[in-house]
Write a structure and sequence with these properties.
The complex is a heterodimer of chains A (311) and B (279). Chain A is of the alpha/beta class. Helix content of chain A is 35%, strand content 29%. The chains are: A alpha/beta (311), B mainly alpha (279). Chains A and B meet through α2, β6, α3, α4 and α5 of A and α1, α6 and α7 of B.
């Protein structure tokens, strides 16, 4: 596959579960390296990954993975792809090393090689000391790691990681993200990281595809999406009474985009220059006191919030 | 290179051609069961009737007083029928969890994310159960035939009943395929092997009880086709060229068995998927 070709491409793909449409006419391409698939729950991220593996057949459209058509070469694709499912998944009744080696054998590795690789990847994901324990006795964090190990054992060219940090404690989450980052940046494995957590994607990926309600909202390199096409401010105001909604309405009417943060400040995106002056003018017109105004830099949160209309 | 960087290396070795995943699944399933003492005990127990029959053949061949124990084609039919109880227990013990456990552990998406087709997965699971069942039906029955030749010191009985080898093979495989596909289909319907086992037993006993009632009401045995064990009996008798024990034509019994296998295949096709869609 030429380097310029996308690792994954979808053209007008729609997927429906009965009457419920999960993907709507999605056209997107995923370049090599680490790409984040970002979106709120129910955006269609997992459905997209399952469609790429052939678990779900699209009602319309075409998909290709590593230059191979999903409809005609599903087995060839699956032999070159590693999939880490979102939900807890393992083969019952096996210890970790047997499970991972078994997955390697299923992927076509000879038994001896599969066993050797199983030991290696279990050490790599941090389960070396627990590799002879039955998988069913593992904690949630360990189960996440072993799912990564089984996805890696056959040395895939592309990793599909569905919410890899789900249910992990902060330390485990950091370690998992470090592994994902290492795979994408140092080990030459292409990967698609599906997550609803912005920091995870921002830390591990170079590119992002933002999904919302079954469609692609934004697609591109994270650095370029964060490029300022205006100014971003952190703003806190005190309005007369509790009329903050009217103030936000005025901001939007003036063509400014704003969304709340976890603190009591809002982030306001002002297209063009002279942003501070415009904000003060709107505040004066609404008789609001500006208590805090600080220029900021655009983050992936802004891109995400703007893409999914989360204000 | 730092030590932590050596933890993950690209793989440059050989990969097996596709289409062998079913054998990997079957081997792993067989290995897992061989590690369970209770299962091994059941397997050993299921070979006791073989020992008894072997002693019978020895006595018939070597002791003039035991001439009444001389082998007949019916002996082999009877032996296979007696093994039915072990077929039942092995099917429930070794088959109920084959897919149910995988469904409980969400293992299907692991299997099907590898280069494994759904058919390979099903054949792999089927091969596990079939291997155990053939080990207590076809293998001892054929060995019994060999033991008879060995003890008799001639091939007269074998030559006089040349159809026995294909009859044993046909009946054992028919029984094993029917029972295995039905159990596998039931196993795919639930995440609880206990529930699957109970369902399997209930279906067998209910159909037998229903036939018992209908037999009393109708005064004949034409409705024996409603019970799978009785269908196997009827077809078994036909295969071994023995008098049929029910009024049902054996082709009808055979058709019911084929229908059951087809229905099981349909259920498996619907249930073995990488993603469960509840529309």
């Amino acid at each position: 596959m030429p380097d310029s070709e996308p690792v994954v491409a979808l053209v007008n793909v729609s997927v429906a579960y009965g009457a419920s449409v999960a993907l709507r006419d999605v056209t997107a391409s995923f370049a090599g390296g680490a790409v984040g698939l970002l979106g709120p729950n129910g955006a269609g991220k997992s459905t997209m990954l399952k469609s790429l593996l052939g678990f779900v057949t699209p009602t319309t459209g075409r998909m290709s993975v590593l230059g191979l058509d999903v409809a005609t070469s599903p087995l060839e694709i699956r032999s070159r792809v590693g999939y880490m499912p979102e939900s807890d998944a393992h083969i019952p009744g096996m210890n970790a090393v047997t499970f991972v080696a078994y997955c390697g054998e299923l992927a076509g590795l000879p038994r001896v090689d599969a066993m050797q690789r199983a030991h290696e990847v279990l050490f790599y994901v941090g389960l070396g000391e627990a590799r002879y324990r039955n998988v069913e006795t593992y904690s949630t964090g360990m189960k996440q790691r072993i799912k990564l190990a089984q996805a890696l054992v056959h040395d895939p060219d592309l990793l599909l990681l569905d919410e890899p940090t789900n249910g992990m404690d902060p330390k485990g989450r950091d370690e998992m993200l470090e592994l994902v980052r290492d795979l994408g940046h140092n080990k030459g494995v292409n990967l698609i990281l599906s997550s609803h957590l912005l920091p995870d994607v921002e830390y591990t990926c170079n590119q992002v595809v933002v999904m919302d309600k079954g469609s692609v909202a934004v697609n591109g390199p994270i650095a370029s999406l964060k490029q300022p096409r205006g100014q971003v401010f952190e703003l806190r105001v005190k309005t007369r009474g509790a009329n903050i909604e009217a103030f936000i309405g005025s901001l939007r009417a003036a063509g400014l985009d704003c969304h709340a943060t976890e603190e009591d400040v809002m982030r306001v995106f002002v297209p063009g220059a002279d942003g501070a002056r415009r904000l003060f003018a709107i505040a004066a017109a609404e008789q609001a006191q500006v208590r805090h105004l600080r220029p900021s830099v655009p983050t992936l949160d802004d891109v995400f919030a703007s893409a999914v209309g989360e204000i | 290179m730092p030590i932590h960087d050596q933890g993950y290396r690209r793989y440059g070795g050989q990969r097996a051609p596709r289409g062998r995943a079913w054998a990997v699944i079957a081997k792993a399933g067989i290995r897992t069961r061989l590690g369970q003492r209770a299962f091994l005990a059941l397997l050993l127990l299921s070979w006791l009737p073989f020992l008894v029959r072997a002693v019978q053949l020895y006595a018939a061949a070597n002791l003039p007083q035991a001439a009444f124990l001389a082998p007949t084609p019916g002996l082999f039919r009877q032996f296979l029928e007696q093994q039915g109880i072990f077929v039942f227990f092995l099917t429930v013990y070794g088959g109920a969890g084959l897919i149910a456990h995988d469904r409980r552990a969400n293992a299907l998406q692991i299997y099907l994310s590898k280069p494994v087709t759904r058919a390979e997965y099903v054949f792999g699971k089927l091969a596990i159960l079939m291997a155990w069942l053939l080990l207590v039906t076809w293998v001892p029955a054929i060995l019994l035939l060999a033991v008879q030749i060995a003890f008799a010191g001639n091939v007269e009985f074998f030559r006089g009943n040349l159809y026995l080898f294909p009859a044993i093979t046909m009946f054992a495989f028919l029984e094993v395929i029917t029972v295995s596909t039905a159990m596998l289909a039931l196993s795919s319907l639930s995440t609880s092997s206990r529930y699957v086992g109970i369902l399997y037993a209930a279906l067998l006993f209910f159909s037998e009880a229903l036939f018992g009632v209908l037999r009393l009401v109708a005064g004949n045995t034409r409705l024996s086709w409603i019970s799978v064990p009785f269908d196997l009996n009827q077809v078994g008798d036909a295969i071994f060229r023995l008098p049929l024990r029910y009024d049902t034509p054996w082709p009808l019994s055979l058709a019911v068995l084929i229908l059951l296998v087809a229905a099981s295949g349909f259920v498996l096709e619907r249930r073995v998927r990488g993603v469960e869609v509840i529309a």
